[in-house]
Design a protein that fits this description.
Strand content: 35-45%
CATH architecture: 2-Layer Sandwich
CATH superfamily: ACT-like. Chain A, domain 2
CATH topology: Alpha-Beta Plaits
Strand order of the largest sheet: 2-3-1-4
Number of helices: 2
Number of domains: 1
Number of strands: 4
Radius of gyration: 13 Å
């Protein structure tokens, strides 16, 4: 396990609105690692696009991304800074 803090962006696509409540609980649980959050609804496609800027060790970032992506109708992709 590496304790070095990294900056990352987690891109989230929510296609199942029933997953939103559980997703918000996860985000609340990881709130100390979240720098910022931007959500963009797309009513025509019935989905939401969310970007999460996070700062934490790589294991924690990966755990959050994995837990979000495991929700039904939720997809994630994580990009890490090089520094």
């Amino acid at each position: 396990m590496c304790d070095e803090k990294r900056i990352a962006l987690i891109g989230v696509i929510v296609e199942n609105q029933d997953a939103v409540e559980e997703m918000n609980h996860l985000l609340h649980d990881y709130r100390e690692h979240i720098i910022g959050r931007m959500g963009i609804p797309h009513p025509e496609k019935k989905l939401s696009i969310i970007s999460l800027a996070v700062e934490s060790d790589q294991d924690t970032i990966s755990a959050l991304s994995g837990k979000l992506g495991a929700l039904d109708g939720v997809s994630t992709k994580t990009v890490y800074s090089k520094k």
